[in-house]
Amino acid sequence: MDREKYIQMRKSGQYDLAWFYEFYVQEKNKEWPTYDFNTFQQSFNMYFQFCGKQILEYMDKKMEVTKIENAEGNLIYIN
């Protein structure tokens, strides 16, 4: 996966669902079914509304980024 693309998305706050779909296809358990993009998009959007912070924390660790947040948890710096 393209770490730089992920960092750019985090900096801008604009998330490319195609990038997340590609990550899903590459990282999922190969024994599980692969859902089409439309199904993924609908599910991911709903899940992100409820668990966005946890998703981004997981991805930050997976992409091995360095970040600085303020006391409220807002992103100040990421690299």
Q: Can I get a quick summary?
A:
The protein is mainly alpha-helical and 79 residues long. It is built from 3 helices and 2 strands.
- Mean pLDDT equals 94
Helix content class: 55-70%
Distance N to C terminus: 15 Å
Strand content bin: 5-15%
Structural notes for this entry:
The protein is mainly α and 79 residues long. It has one domain. The protein is 59% helix and 9% strand. It has three helices and two strands, in the order αααββ. It has helices at 3-12, 17-27, 37-62; strands spanning 67-69, 75-78. A two-stranded antiparallel ribbon has the order 1-2. Strand 1 and strand 2 (75-78) form a beta hairpin. 1% of the residues are buried.
Descriptive keywords:
two-stranded antiparallel sheet, 79 residues, single chain, 3 helices, 59% helix, mainly alpha
Which secondary structure elements does this structure contain, and how are they paired or packed?
Layout: H1 3-12, H2 17-27, H3 37-62, E1 67-69, E2 75-78
Antiparallel strand pairs: 1-2
